[in-house]
Write a structure and sequence with these properties.
Order of helices and strands: EHHEEHHHH
Radius of gyration: 23 Å
Shape: elongated
CATH topology of the largest domain: Multidrug-efflux Transporter Regulator, Chain: A, Domain 2
Helix content: 40-55%
Distance between the termini: 66 Å
CATH class of the largest domain: Mainly Alpha
CATH architecture of the largest domain: Orthogonal Bundle
Strand order of the largest sheet: 1-3-2
Number of strands: 3
Length: about 150
């Protein structure tokens, strides 16, 4: 049996396997997220590992990552050969750290959304209890407490 890792896929086969439209695959190719070679007839040919790359792109986008961030993560994978499990593990370690940070932020948001989120708005009737004299404003703009800051005295 032939080595499936070296199998070349047409853009239609890749679209069928990933659920993406052919136009989306072409777009991701222009964005440097996946690459193709051309056969003698000028048709695109993708390595089988493109399925995994595009699946990762779809997952990362669902989690709110921008294409530039995804491109940076995928840049750690080898372009000259099919990535190994070790290559993916190294890249996913970076992704996992970013996900852990997002999960922590979402957890803080869930726990504090109905209370003080440290925005300095002073619009809640009990905000003076959490943020007297708008002390949170000295920390910077935005929802400081949800972002992880918890100054003494709050």
């Amino acid at each position: 049996m032939a080595n499936r890792g070296n199998e070349q896929l047409s853009i239609g086969q890749l679209a069928t396997r990933t659920g993406l439209a052919v136009s989306a695959i072409r777009y991701y190719e222009t964005q440097g997220l996946v690459s193709a070679t051309r056969n003698a007839g000028g048709q695109r040919r993708f390595v089988r590992s493109s399925i995994r790359r595009l699946s990762f792109v779809l997952i990362a986008q669902q989690l709110g990552y921008q294409l530039e961030q995804i491109r940076e993560l995928l840049a750690g994978l080898p372009a000259e050969r099919t990535p190994t499990q070790k290559d993916w593990a190294r890249m996913s370690k970076q992704f996992r750290q970013s996900l852990d940070e997002r999960i922590a932020t979402l957890g803080r948001l869930r726990e504090r959304l109905d209370g003080c989120i440290g925005c300095g708005c002073l619009s809640l009737s009990n905000c003076a209890l959490y943020n007297p004299d708008d002390k949170a404003a000295t920390l910077g703009v935005g929802p400081r407490f949800v972002l992880g800051e918890r100054p003494k005295g709050f």
